[in-house]
Every structure is written in structure tokens, then in C-alpha cells.
Amino acid sequence: MVKANDIRVTQPKQLDEVSTQLFQQAIDKCSATGGGQVYVAAGTYTVGALVMKSGVELHLSQGVLLRGSVNHPEDYKAGRGIITAKDAENIAVTGLGTIDGQGFHHNFQRYGNNQGNRPHAIFMENCRNVTIRDIHIRNAAWWTARLFRCDGVAIDHVNIYSHSIVNNDGLDIDSRNVTVSNCRIDSDDDGICLKSDDPNFMPENITVTNCIIGSNCNPIKLGTSSYCGFRNVTFSNIVILPPTKSNVWDWSKEYREVPKGQLTGLAGIAVEAVDGGHIENLHFNNISMTGVITPIFVCLNKRNGVGSVKNLVFSNITAKAHGIIPSLISSIPGEYINGITLRDIIVEHVGKGTVEDAQTPLKENLNGYPENRMYGKTNPAYGLYVRHAKNIIVDNFQVRLQNVDARPAVVMEDVQDVLIDKLKDTSAQKTGTLVRMADCRDVLFRNSDTGVATPATLLKLEGKSTANIRCEFPIEKYVVKGEEVEPKAILEY
């Protein structure tokens, strides 16, 4: 940022309208005279919408408390956030100061889920070369920071705490050429959420790294809005923790085996294609999760048109989960999720699934709201469920149960071209089937280890269209169409 025309803002004797005018005059003058920094001295300021202009860096110094006005919507006619911008370039919000959205105020609390055009803490639209660095944001009245149709965004060392109201997402990114790094997010709704609201704008070339995320919903999420889709996205070196509080959700009331009062998110990683968009080339690597119910959730349905999901890699992930819905990948009949790699993954689940859970088919959901419970609040598998997919690699996938579970570790239905290598159940006690496959074809198992001292059912095959199943490892016992078959090194079905 050019600093030749720096302008200093100090705390006025009056707040609200006076503060807003003072800030806006400084921003306008800075931009009109060639750009530079608007430096905000320590103090408390209450403002409505501030409109950023090209070439301006708004620097909130340490000790600044910038409070959003609660005169909603009167004080936000100029924009959809406390700090807002449209069609600007080379803009920045920096400093160690704090933005407080005052979302606890009754003027905002009167709105329910997805209701009211409440202000974001930061909202930027159609901007180029945006930097958000070092600031603290708390108590947003809506999504905390919303970047819509921007090109070139750098978000670094931002600390977000939003537990004041429904829809308290952390970062909502609907932009391209984006880097997010070194952020700490603790939110009541989704943590870092990629959205795709414009069917003619593709959010792409996005990297998120070295972040710590706590969320009562989905810490990492792509969707639900997915009209164009997402392309070339990487999340790496992420720690997912339970949120520190929840003023909205108590998932123990809706999910089995979530302890009463337990703070937890839904899916640690959620990828949702439901609005006709195309999702491709995603990589999730080096991620540690606690405080989630479902470690990985991928869905494709036709809520607003049929899109596609292809080429997703999940690698080097560890997760300790609550509830009984495992990692879940599901499309709709006739449409296939294409190309999923699950490599070097270790998950620990509660267990306690019943025989009834194992035998209850997972219902289809062709156009429902995408979430891990969209197919029901249980699942026929305790480690991984895959349906309507092809080109699937499961390589060194390890599952550990805290309690005995009557369900198979892995269930696949209508899945093609599968490699399962080094699948392990490391639980102290194991019963039942390790893998059940129905209407699957072109499958190769190898190097898997049940770790069971006594004979156990390793593989159960069902369905008229099941074909070309090969196993390349020692088998103690396996079941084909409900009948036990003598052990043999290679099974061909």
C-alpha cells in the first residue's frame, strides 16, 4: 500500500453518525489524493457502513474497538457490512484492532435462521487485490466476513470469534485467486465456507493453510451454495477443534451417541454439489480433527440442477468423532461422484451401532438440504459409506472403535472401479463384517488386515450386478450371497 497520503483518525467526542462521517471522509480523501493509509488511533468508535475506496488501507491500530451500529438497517444503507467495498481495487484492512458486530443486540436477535438482511463485519463485492491482515473480529450480526466475486484476496493472521447469533459463519469466500493463512476461527456456524452464488463466476485457485478452526456446524465447507462450483482448492495443515461455546445448537438432542452438553461440529470437511455446479480438483491434506460427528462428507444431488464432483484427494487426516454417522460419500442414482482418494487416514468412532442400523438401507435424498444427516441419523457403516461413485481409492484407512459395533467398517453400494489397500480395524474388540459391497464391480482388495484372532467375516458381497471382485490377501472366512466360502488366497466373484 502507498503511504504517501496517510490520514489519521482519532476518537471524536460523539459516536455513531459523527464517527461514520469522520471515517468516510478520511477514506474518500485518501483515495482521491492517490491512495495510502487511513490510520485509526486507539479508542472506541461506533459506525455504520464504511465504504472502502480504491488504493486505501484502513489500519486499525492496537487498542481500536470498532463497533458496528445497532441501528439496523438505517445505518447500513451504504453497504452490507461494517466495512464494505464494491468495485474497488488495491484495498486493505489491517492492524491489531478489533471489529465488534454487536450481534447480541436485540435489534439483531429478533431475526431467526437465515432471516433479516443483517450486516456482515466485512463485505466486499467485485473487488481486486484485497488484503485482510492481523485484525480481530467478534460478535458478527451475520456471516463474519463475506468476499463475493473478488479476484486476488489475501487473508492472514485474522482472529474470528462469532457466537452471538444464528448464521455466524467465520469466512465466506466466493472469490478466485485466494490465500487464507494463519487464522484462528471459532464460530457458531460454518468455519471457513466456500460459496458459489453466481452461476457465471467460478471460485477457483484457493489455498487455506495453517489455520485452527472450531465450529458448531462444518469447520471446512464447500457449499451449500454451488451454482457454478469450485475448482483447484487446497486445504492443508489445519487443526479442527470443538467450538468454545454454542448459543444456538445442541447436537446431542439430534444425534445418537453425542454426549449431553458436548460441543461438536457436524462434518469436519463437507463438499456439497447441489445446485448444478461442477466441483473438481480439491485436496485436503494434513488435517487433525476432534469435535466432529462425521469426519468427511461429500454429496451430489439435484436441489437446483445436477452438477458434478470429481478428483478429490483426502490425505494424512486423523479424526476423533462423536455420534454414529461416519465418513459419507453419496450421489444420486444415475449420477456418479468420480475420483475420490482417501489415503493415510486414521479415524476413531464411538461405535455402538446395532444390527438394525446395519440392516437399515440408507435412504436416497435427491434434492434435500445437504448435511451429514440428510440421509438419516444413522448409517449402515461405522467407518466409511460410499454410494453412487466410481474411481475410488482407499489406501491405508484405519478405523478404531471405542465400543463394539454390529455394522461393517465399510459399506459400498453402486460403486465402480475401486481399490482398497491396507484397510485396518485396530479396535480392541471386533465383530461382524469388515466390508459389505452391494451392486459393485471392478474391485481389488489387497494387503488388508482385520487384526482378528478368531475367524470373522471379512467381505460380504450382495446384489445382482456385483462383478469382478478380486481379493489379494489371506482370508480366514468370507461370505458370498449370505453363504460362507472356504478360505482361499484370491477370491474372484
Describe this structure in words.
By secondary structure, the chain is mainly beta. The protein has a domain at 169-492. Helices cover 5% and strands 49% of the residues. The chain is built from three helices and 36 strands. It has helices at residues 17-32, 106-109, 355-359; strands at residues 7-9, 36-40, 43-47, 50-51, 56-60, 64-68, 81-86, 89-94, 98-100, 120-125, 128-133, 136-138, 145-156, 159-162, 171-181, 184-187, 192-196, 204-215, 220-226, 229-241, 267-273, 278-292, 294-300, 308-321, 327-330, 337-349, 384-401, 410-421, 424-425, 435-438, 441-446, 459-462, 467-472, 478-480, 483-485, 490-492. A twelve-stranded parallel beta barrel has the order 15-17-19-21-23-25-27-26-24-22-20-18. Strand 1 (7-9), helix 1 (17-32) and strand 2 (36-40) form a beta-alpha-beta unit. The longest helix is centred in the N-terminal third of the chain and has 16 residues, at 17-32.
Structural class: mainly beta
Largest pleated sheet: 12 strands, parallel, barrel
Average pLDDT number: 92
**Level of helix content?**
under 10%
Q: How many helices does DSSP assign? A: 3
The coarse overall form would be elongated
Poorly predicted runs are none
Strand content: over 45%
How many whole angstroms does the radius of gyration measure?
Answer: 25 Å
Number of β-strand runs: 36
**Widest sheet, order of strands:** 15-17-19-21-23-25-27-26-24-22-20-18
Separation of the first and last Cα atoms = 66 Å
Topology:
Layout: E1 7-9, H1 17-32, E2 36-40, E3 43-47, E4 50-51, E5 56-60, E6 64-68, E7 81-86, E8 89-94, E9 98-100, H2 106-109, E10 120-125, E11 128-133, E12 136-138, E13 145-156, E14 159-162, E15 171-181, E16 184-187, E17 192-196, E18 204-215, E19 220-226, E20 229-241, E21 267-273, E22 278-292, E23 294-300, E24 308-321, E25 327-330, E26 337-349, H3 355-359, E27 384-401, E28 410-421, E29 424-425, E30 435-438, E31 441-446, E32 459-462, E33 467-472, E34 478-480, E35 483-485, E36 490-492
Parallel strand pairs: 1-2, 2-5, 3-6, 4-7, 5-8, 6-9, 7-10, 8-11, 9-12, 10-13, 11-13, 12-14, 13-15, 14-16, 15-17, 15-18, 16-18, 17-19, 18-20, 19-21, 20-22, 21-23, 22-24, 23-25, 24-26, 25-27, 26-27, 27-28, 27-29, 28-30, 28-31, 30-32, 31-33, 32-34
Antiparallel strand pairs: 33-36, 34-35
